[in-house]
Amino acid sequence: MSWDIFVMDIPLSATSADTVPSDWVPGPIPMREEILRAIIEVDPTADLSDPSWVRVNGAGFSVEVNIGKECPLTNFTCHVRGGDYSIGFIADLLARLKLRAFDPGSATGIFDPATASESLARWREYRAQMLKLPGAGE
To answer: pTM of the prediction?
Structure first.
């Protein structure tokens, strides 16, 4: 189970997921090599042995960055487990790539480093509830 952040070329004019134009189609994002380079710039210890599933292990968190094989790329996903330091990793990665991301747990639906800790806390609460269900697991 992970807190999932969906990276795309979200219009700059969108202040929330609700304000993304209904006819919007995600455009191309940087190529895989550029994304991998940005990940290494943010965390030089990232495991790039599988460029489709990059693993980043930070202080109290891990992020698996799932990058598809299509060309051109239109999105990738960060699967986050663990603590608040993951927010800094994602924010830095997005800034380097000049991209934005959807955060379904946020009030706006768009990832915002200033409020992401609230979204992550909501995900942790949800996860705790799910893990208490009979037969639930990770």
So the answer is: 0.89
